[in-house]
Amino acid sequence: MQHVRRRGFRRIVPSVLASLLVAAGLIGGASPAQADPSDLCAQVGYNAGWRGQALELAVAVALAESSCNPSASNTTNNTPPSTDRGLWQINNYWHKEVDDACAYDPQCNANAAYRISNEGRNWEPWSTYVMGHHLRHMGEARAAVARLGSPGTGPAPLVYPVESGRVVSARSADGRLEVFAAGADGVHHAWQSQVNGGWSEWEKLGGPGNAQLAIAPNADGRLEAFAINGDVAKHRYQLAPSGAWSGWEDFGTGGSSITAGVNADGRIEVFASGPTGVFHRYQNAPNSGWSNWEPSGGGPAGSRVKMEKSSDGRLEVFALNGSVFQHQYQTAVNGGWSPWEDFGGGGHDVTVDHNADGRLEVFASGPVGVFHRYQTSPTSWSGWEPTRGPANARLSSDRSPDGRVEVFAINGDTAQHIWQKGVNAAYVDWDAFGTGGTDIAAATNADGRIEVFGTSRDGVHHKWQTGFSTWSEWAWVNSTSGPPIP
Length: 486
Prior knowledge:
Layout: H1 14-24, H2 37-48, H3 52-66, E1 73-74, E2 84-85, E3 90-91, H4 100-103, H5 106-116, H6 127-130, H7 138-147, E4 167-171, E5 177-183, E6 186-191, E7 203-206, E8 212-217, E9 223-228, E10 232-237, E11 249-253, E12 257-262, E13 268-274, E14 277-282, E15 294-298, E16 304-309, E17 315-320, E18 324-329, E19 341-345, E20 349-354, E21 360-366, E22 369-377, E23 380-381, E24 385-386, E25 394-399, E26 405-410, E27 414-419, E28 431-435, E29 439-444, E30 450-456, E31 459-464, E32 475-476
Antiparallel strand pairs: 1-2, 2-3, 4-5, 5-6, 6-7, 8-9, 9-10, 10-11, 12-13, 13-14, 14-15, 16-17, 17-18, 18-19, 20-21, 21-22, 22-23, 22-24, 25-26, 26-27, 27-28, 29-30, 30-31, 31-32
Helix pairs in contact: 1-2, 2-3, 2-5, 2-7, 3-7
Pfam family, one: DUF8189
InterPro entries: Lysozyme-like_dom_sf, PLL-like_beta-prop, SLT_3
Keywords: Signal
């Protein structure tokens, strides 16, 4: 699943492949010379549960990962040292629950990949998908699925919103992280010089000073960044996937906070809070122009606004100020919005993420620490539960390569984090993560490792996973500090 290189994979000889296909129930008396490795991935993928376009995508990922060789293995460039195994290259470090016997069994490997990918909705743990290497195999994958009779339909992968705040980070189409930080003199930008690798120097972009930021991918893979302060809203976008950026363009008047997400049909939707509530604006078509700003029907004034996506593809928005916390959601995929609903008392900040099974997790900070609420089903929520943690902290969250949610909190005195004990499970106690700061953002590298950015009056630091529970030390993003962010 991480840094897979196809050279070195053993090609399946026709007689062995035919035996595997017979065992999978795909062929009976077909000539072994007619067997194709993609047929094996198509059959076991279908048996696992993928259908239609979701099955085509799954087969393409397997072709990019292993050439659909069930004996394929890879150790090159894996951090920490580990082995990617079988058809979908299930890593033995990040997925210890999948033993070798299962990983090298075609059907068991497919079943594990189906579970890890949330039934095909989340392919982010596979670096070949993140970097688009699967695209060159889509024709071969479609042909293999067609030989099964193009069975049924399946879900398209979900594009989950990126955390918003004074510092934001997202991956370009080629898998490199890009980071934006909002200082008093405008927005600053740095990017990885190679996938999972080192960083450029900071560049100064201008734009709104002391802004709140959001970022989202267009349907064609181009990132689009948004910045808002009390006077103005601006946006800029990549001119080509992973390419250069436009200049700043007007996006509206000022506000307090901004967040962005992607509809199931690829249109970006943006929400921003202001002194009279929450407003939104959306693309009229994928990669296209924008609607005017429209009222959202209320929402807390001057609130922190964050967005997530339900497992069925509907966007959900959460907004919190010092006295009110409210929530609204799309009533249908790509559709209209519910009225705002009370979600609890007010607080300082909020972060929202999703479990491996798609259920949403919400964390909110306040004067006595961090509280937690989570979906118990697609339409119901737990009550608020205390987790302790830093008071009045800024929050961020992301998922480890095995699908566990990790939450990061920072205030002026301390940085701390918690993580799930297992996939879809309860959380450990808060653990030290560094000294204090002003804001925090988490993102995932192309190989699935979380990278965290912390801001302070000195500049922007980052820290990254080196294992399940091991992290690098804090360091500058490159040789310069970046903008101070009070």
